[in-house]
Write a sequence for this structure.
């Protein structure tokens, strides 16, 4: 079964280098941890390690960490690719690519594509549908912070 990628586009009023840095370095400030994490209310931050092979994870108040994914491509300020397996075996990872393209007057178009749903087998369609709406919520926090 092949499912189309989830695609989201946002424009933020900062240059690509700033948009990339907010997305990666400040993920713990904009990600809605209470509703979009493994630990829920116990999650205190999210981290994206700044390198290919780096971890993307959440940290709970007691220090426990839960992996979300692994950075596959780290190309500041233009591109980030993450194998994404929140709460799953890494062998079932989907893939997220985020591009940061210059836009008019110093702004940046942020293009997110979440793909490879077929790796989830019978759960693929329902999981894809959940992320299609979930990314709107998640990116709302990002655009709010990047624009401030």
């Amino acid at each position: 079964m092949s499912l189309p990628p989830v695609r989201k586009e946002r424009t933020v009023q900062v240059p690509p280098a700033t948009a990339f840095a907010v997305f990666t370095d400040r993920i713990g400030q904009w990600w809605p941890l209470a509703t979009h994490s493994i630990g829920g209310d116990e999650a205190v931050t999210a981290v994206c390690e700044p390198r290919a092979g780096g971890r993307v994870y959440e940290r709970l108040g007691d220090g426990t960490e839960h992996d979300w994914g692994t950075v596959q491509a780290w190309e500041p300020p233009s591109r980030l690719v993450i194998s994404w397996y929140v709460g799953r075996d890494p062998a079932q990872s989907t893939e997220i690519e985020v591009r940061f393209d210059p836009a008019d007057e110093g702004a940046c178009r942020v293009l997110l594509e979440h793909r490879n749903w077929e790796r989830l087998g019978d759960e693929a369609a329902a999981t894809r549908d959940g992320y299609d709406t979930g990314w709107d919520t998640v990116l709302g926090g990002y655009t709010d912070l990047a624009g401030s």
